[in-house]
Amino acid sequence: MAFGFFGSLLILSLLFKHFTCQLPNTDEFYVSNFLKKMGLNSSMSYNFSGSVCSWKGMHCDTKKENLIGLKASSLGLSGIIPDTTIGKLAKLQSLDLSNNKITALPSDIWSLGSLKWLNLSSNQISGSLPNNVGNFGLLEVIDLSGNNFSGEIPATITSLLSLQVLNLAGNGFEWSIPRGILNCKALVSVDLSSNRLNGSLPDGFGAAFPKLKTLNLARNEIHGLDTDFAELMSLTSLNISRNLFKGSVMGVFQGQLKEIDLSMNQFQGHISKVQFNSTYKWSHLVYLDLSENQLSGEISLNLSQAQNLRHLNLAYNRFAIQKFPRIEMLLGLEYLNLSKTNLIGHIPGEISQLSILHTLDVSSNRLSGQIPSLANKSLKVLDVSHNNLSGEIPVSLLEKLPLMERYNFSYNNLTLCALGFSPETFKTAFYGSSNSCPIAANPVLIERSGNGHKGLKLALALTLSTVCLLAGLLILAFGCRRKSRKWVVKQPSYKEEQHISGPFSFQTDSTTWVADVKQATSVPVVIFEKPLLNITFADLLSATSN
């Protein structure tokens, strides 16, 4: 009896121990459950055998006890992340779920207090960003770009004192940038581009980030002045394009900036002020875009010192009338846009020295003279439209056009032989130009000639049809008339029958020339037709109207 009782206890204890080992309280279970519930792409050959530390994208601590890194990007995961999955990975430090189709986060994800690196970019997560994001006190990198977040940027961001990278680009965040961001003094990179942010930058914005190297606020409606960025002395890349910033651009050219994009704002003032900014080292500059502002004066930047410049865009400003700036010393230039900058004179032939130039746009100016040969080997985009250029387009340039991505010579006074170009291309890319090709090689004239030939053929066909119809009617008319005359000969009138008195008798009207006939008119004519008639030659003349 006692043996049976203790034996039952032993069996129960073993079973309990067995089931306890199978409880879902391990990192292995949480990860496996997460991937399976999120619809892991069936085409992915994911191996769940062995320890979770050996699974693809998983990283454990040195003792192989806890999962500290999970990378599940581009696995086709979709839907809402369920609770009691990744939110239970207590020691997790790095989480990468980018490039999936996740629509919502679990409520327990904000309990991951050890998280240092969070990447949820390129998903479909919507709604507001909870204030719980402030729980990630150790967070160094957060990337939520390319989602559908909306509402305000939570003020609790002020708690992320260790934050170095903040990327919220490509969402629908609204209102102004919270002042609490000024506490994140460890920031090195900030990207808030392509949102719906408005208002002005918090006071002291520039001085708050001594380590900031990259700042992107493009495509918002943020107000501010150039002085807001004056104290960002570590900044190397600044993009505030497509906003509502005002003032002079002089305050921007500070420190070690390599990339500057101030395009599509409301900056104004004389651009020459930038030239006399002695504190800025132009040799650092690689990318400069000041297009679509209200800058005035002449283009007199220290271009001779910008030996490393690759991208230059000054288009659509209010510069004074000036000749083409000297840019031949910028041997590293790849992109040049001087569209609508009031340029006059000739396009300098020295521009061909820029061997790696990819894009050249000098459209909508008052340039005159001939187009140089432009022997730039890397040239792929060329726009010289809306100028006063004249003369022949160099043959060497025409030969390169089929290899280009885009070109436009329209609205000039140019001449070219458009052999090899379709009529459509000639009309769109060379509108207003003269085609000097002979007719046999002129696509426009060939098209016109082809249309003319079609019309001529139709006209000829109609004319021939009309002529044939008229000829048929005339032949029919003449035939009917001949039959009518024969009937008159065969059936003499009653008057004529009254004058016939014998085989050789003849009387006639003296008013006709037949009356003067003396001999031949009296010769009888015998017609072998029933009934037989005795008719003279004079009778035939009279019957046929002479």
From TrEMBL:
<keyword id="KW-0325">Glycoprotein</keyword>
<dbReference type="Pfam" id="PF00560">
    <property type="entry name" value="LRR_1"/>
</dbReference>
<protein>
    <recommendedName>
        <fullName>Leucine-rich repeat-containing N-terminal plant-type domain-containing protein</fullName>
    </recommendedName>
</protein>
<keyword id="KW-0433">Leucine-rich repeat</keyword>
<dbReference type="GO" id="GO:0016020">
    <property type="term" value="C:membrane"/>
</dbReference>
<dbReference type="InterPro" id="IPR003591">
    <property type="entry name" value="Leu-rich_rpt_typical-subtyp"/>
</dbReference>
<keyword id="KW-1133">Transmembrane helix</keyword>
<dbReference type="InterPro" id="IPR001611">
    <property type="entry name" value="Leu-rich_rpt"/>
</dbReference>
<keyword id="KW-0732">Signal</keyword>
<dbReference type="InterPro" id="IPR051716">
    <property type="entry name" value="Plant_RL_S/T_kinase"/>
</dbReference>
<dbReference type="InterPro" id="IPR032675">
    <property type="entry name" value="LRR_dom_sf"/>
</dbReference>
<keyword id="KW-0675">Receptor</keyword>
<keyword id="KW-0472">Membrane</keyword>
<comment type="similarity">
    <text>Belongs to the RLP family.</text>
</comment>
<keyword id="KW-0547">Nucleotide-binding</keyword>
<dbReference type="GO" id="GO:0005524">
    <property type="term" value="F:ATP binding"/>
</dbReference>
<feature type="signal peptide">
    <location>
        <begin position="1"/>
        <end position="22"/>
    </location>
</feature>
<keyword id="KW-0812">Transmembrane</keyword>
<feature type="transmembrane region" description="Helical">
    <location>
        <begin position="458"/>
        <end position="480"/>
    </location>
</feature>
<keyword id="KW-0677">Repeat</keyword>
<dbReference type="Pfam" id="PF13855">
    <property type="entry name" value="LRR_8"/>
</dbReference>
<keyword id="KW-0067">ATP-binding</keyword>
